[in-house]
């Protein structure tokens, strides 16, 4: 071996050594960066979700149906996942305050919204909403639905929906109905009835369903659409008269009361339903994780039995199906809001 060959070999070996050393440094640096990156909070993943408490925001007051069923859902989800689900009430401004809060929350699956068809009505009714339901939220899953019941005050000379329609057509404006406020499911059920039956009955809005109910019982107002679970005992004791329920099928709680479709308004349905939304951008695997768990809860025998006793039916849809359902509900109530020229102050 001559001197040149020896020198070249040494140089080549030194180059390999430097490359190997540089590679080790780069690999080590990459491992450090990867470890640091994994510790940085980011979008939730289904394999680790939930790793800390989840908040379900209810944009209505405590004690209402959304609040009650949100707490049932929170308890069962906690049992399913081993992590806490906490209900937080943020009422006000026709459900806008709580809804806006969730719209602006991090899309990580840890802040969810318990909604009702109040939000789908608001899409048309409230022109200056600080959010758009279909743009700022991701549909997670429906929870349940319940029909309403149309009741009239005791002593009103009307015993059926057909009689009511006939008398209302003979004397437009003769009858009136109460609701818990403009844009609520109770109000919209009345407006849908007016539209489909072709009648004119005056709407009297109250600040709560309790106030509306009290005046129907007292005879100051002729009728109202109300929750089946609330009205059942009053119907049985004769304090009000049930004319029809508003679901597609008869209520398990009031099996002898016809549906509105059976009673003379074909195609009529107006239920109160609840569902869960997440901020737009929530990872799909987290959305699917929640959807599957909620569907599983809805299938639990004790849940189905308890809800049936209140006339409540579980709803099951995929996120995509629930998205379609939301769009259709917005269109349905939007048409009623526009045709009836319903406005809020």
UniProtKB/TrEMBL annotation:
- Gene3D superfamilies with a match to the protein in the record: Bordetella uptake gene, domain 1, Periplasmic binding protein-like II
Q: Which CDD domains match?
A: PBP2_Bug27
User: Which segment of the chain is annotated as a signal peptide?
Assistant: 1-46
Signal recorded as keyword: yes
PANTHER family the record matches: BLR1237 PROTEIN (PTHR42928:SF5), TRICARBOXYLATE-BINDING PROTEIN (PTHR42928)
UniProt keyword Cell cycle present: no
Which family is this sequence assigned to?
A: Belongs to the UPF0065 (bug) family.
Per its UniProt entry, which superkingdom is the organism in? Bacteria
Which Pfam families does the annotation name?
Answer: TctC
InterPro entries, per database record = BUG (IPR005064), Bug_dom1 (IPR042100)
Q: Which UniProt keywords apply?
A: Signal
Name of the molecule in the record: MFS transporter
């Amino acid at each position: 071996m001559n001197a040149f060959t020896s020198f070249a070999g040494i140089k080549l070996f030194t180059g390999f050594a430097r490359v190997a050393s540089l590679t080790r440094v780069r690999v080590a640096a990459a491992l450090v960066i990867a470890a640091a990156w994994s510790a940085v909070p980011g979008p939730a993943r289904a394999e680790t979700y939930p790793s800390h408490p989840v908040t379900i925001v209810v944009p209505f007051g405590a004690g209402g149906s959304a609040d009650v069923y949100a707490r049932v859902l929170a308890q069962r989800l906690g049992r399913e996942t081993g992590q806490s689900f906490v209900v937080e009430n943020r009422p006000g401004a026709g459900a806008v305050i709580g809804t806006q809060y969730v719209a602006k929350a991090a899309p990580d699956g840890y802040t969810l919204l318990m909604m009702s068809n109040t939000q789908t009505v608001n899409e048309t009714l409230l022109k200056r909403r600080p959010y758009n339901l279909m743009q700022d939220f991701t549909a997670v899953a429906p929870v349940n639905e319940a029909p309403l019941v149309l009741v009239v005050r005791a002593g009103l000379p009307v015993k059926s929906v057909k009689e009511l329609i006939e008398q209302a057509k003979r004397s437009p404006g003769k009858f009136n109905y109460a609701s818990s406020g403009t844009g609520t499911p109770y109000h919209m059920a009345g407006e849908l009835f007016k539209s489909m039956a072709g009648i004119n009955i005056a709407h009297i809005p109250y600040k709560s369903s309790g106030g509306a109910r009290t005046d129907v019982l007292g005879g100051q107002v002729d009728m109202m659409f109300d929750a089946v679970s609330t009205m059942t005992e009053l119907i049985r004791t004769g304090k009000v008269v049930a004319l029809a329920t508003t679901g597609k099928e008869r209520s398990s709680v009031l099996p002898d009361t016809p549906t509105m479709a059976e009673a003379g308004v074909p195609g009529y349905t107006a239920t109160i339903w609840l569902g869960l939304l997440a901020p737009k951008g929530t990872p799909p695997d987290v959305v699917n994780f929640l959807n599957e768990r909620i569907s599983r809860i809805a299938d639990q025998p004790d849940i189905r039995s308890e809800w049936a006793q209140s006339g409540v039916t579980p709803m099951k849809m995929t996120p995509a199906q629930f998205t379609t359902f939301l769009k259709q509900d917005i269109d349905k109530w939007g048409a009623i809001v526009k045709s009836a020229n319903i406005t809020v102050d």
